[in-house]
Amino acid sequence: MPYEEVEISRDVEVVMIPQGVTTTLKAGTPAVITQSLGDSYTLQVPTFGGLYRLSGQNADAIGKAAARADGEPGADLDAPVTEELIYNQLRNVYDPEIPVNIVELGLIYDLRIEPLAAGGSRVEVKMTLTAPGCGMGEIIAHDARSRIESVPGVKEADVQVVFDPPWNQQMMSDAAKLELGML
Prior knowledge:
Blueprint: E1 4-7, E2 12-17, E3 22-25, E4 30-37, E5 40-45, E6 50-55, H1 83-90, E7 108-115, E8 121-127, H2 137-149, E9 154-161, H3 174-179
Parallel strand pairs: 8-9
Antiparallel strand pairs: 1-4, 2-3, 2-6, 4-5, 5-6, 7-8
């Protein structure tokens, strides 16, 4: 995507990249959209000299349509929860510094779906990060959990960030390597 200059239209909460610290950008602040993938935007804010992640729910603050918080339109609420449905949602979660989703990056280590006695399903995911010290880990895990919970039939979701085994570039799909110019 070509970079796009925008102006923040209202005070909005953002997360500093890679620190993972929440801060507020004030209305009138100039910014540049450097990445728009999944349901979030990566903004370069020259006046603060850094990158910031803006959630899709706040996209109106940069003149974009806000992301939907619910599942797919017309989804069958009684359909069984499948790995395919969960992985499809996780393909919409991105590290704000890398233009490849967490599935193709090889960050998902384990995915389990368990039926609940009261109906619906519980989904458990173990994932990792490309770097153990990444301050965005909890933000990315929260995005994954939110995406999973948007799947009809999912009543509970647990996303744990683990570092065993350590992630390496060989875990990426060929599509991810191609996107990043590694093939």
